[in-house]
Amino acid sequence: MTTTSETQQATAPLSLQQQFLCIFAQGFEAGPFGPHYTEVFAWRVKGRVDVPTLRLALADVVERHEALRTLVQLEDGGAQRVLPAVQPELLVVDLDGAPGADRDRRAEQLMIEAETRPFPADRIPLLRAVLGRFDEQDSVLVLCAHHSAADVWSIQVILQDLAECYTARAAGGEPDLPAVTQYRDYVAAQQEDAAGPTVAASRAYWRETLRGAKIMVAPVHRTGQSPATSYHRFTTEARLSTEVSRLAKATRSSMFMVLLAAFTVYVHRRTRATDIVVPTFGPGRERRFQSTVGSFFNFVPLRVDLAGCRTFRDAIATSRTACIGAFSHELPLLHVLAEAPDLMSSAGPDAVPTLFQAVQPPYLMQGNRIGDLEYTAIWRRVIPQPLGSDTPDGMIWSMHLGADEVVGGLSYSRHLFEQAEVEEQVAGFLAVIGEMVADPDSAI
């Protein structure tokens, strides 16, 4: 485990995840190292927030996690360099004090405003914050990180540590958190494990599972708009969420497996394809790195073969098998592509990948009190965005699985897809989910 004294100007090679991002790099002007590739999350905070104390706690977090003060070098094969900590930006905004639902909507708007601000990846720190205050006892804390340095799991780790540091500072003390494993420790472990038996077994799994497979793509319709990512958002009825959960339990599956099955049936109806390879995201973390900040997420191809499926229940069983196999053999995509080099050959200028994910972040605070403050995550986002965090050309379906409803989002390249087409796809997918839960034994 590295220590703070060892990090000054320390260099390390890139992880396989970072190397994959470099394939799509367009310098620091666009793409995954550009100024619009951000990870944003927010919490409602109950209690009086002291701004100077929050600034100290933010500095503590940047000092604690190297990834937030690491610059990536894109030339000559790539490398990363850890720099000394500097104070992150904290923007304080006074918000309209209207009560109730208006505050919820204004909090979401604050997140959008934070997300659309350019965030350079070639300047540290790669973390900044916005504190929006409705009144002395009700605030919104938005954390923004460059996505090349932190994933959605990392943001939850950052908030947890920030809350602990704030509490210690508010009491007049110094934070006393357990030592943390750094991202370059993960890179070293990844390199050490690359030739080991676990990686070899997983590579063999992917070699066999993806034999002859092609990633799912969507045909594009160029719109003439400038390249950017837009976000369409939608919600389901509470009843539908409850029925998806009930069906998941009845089939010994997760809600994600049920929704994935519905998605593959939806794709089958649109394209008549039965061999469907849906890319999704995996956390990419072993237990020893669960408290580490960095870019760990993997792209995981889920191959679902509907050829032998007659009913929705059959599709769920096939989806379940695909998920269990894929996530128990999760590897960085560069390892997977080495075993299935033709996987991405279906993608090109006229057909781009479509991803499907369910978001259930760890450490998701819901009314957690740490010190004098109570934190509640804002995961329910319903406001559409004409401009949001960049994603590679294509579509990403995101299903946020709440207790009372499923909140969905479809991010898409607005220069490749018309909004009307996106809305039509969402309506079609939700209709399939409704059919599935109404009668799982009906024909697909």
From TrEMBL:
Pfam families: Condensation. SUPFAM superfamilies: CoA-dependent acyltransferases. It comes from the Bacteria. InterPro entries: CAT-like_dom_sf, Condensation_dom. Residues 9-330 form the Condensation domain. This is Condensation domain-containing protein. It comes from Catenulispora yoronensis. The lineage of its organism: Bacteria, Bacillati, Actinomycetota, Actinomycetes, Catenulisporales.
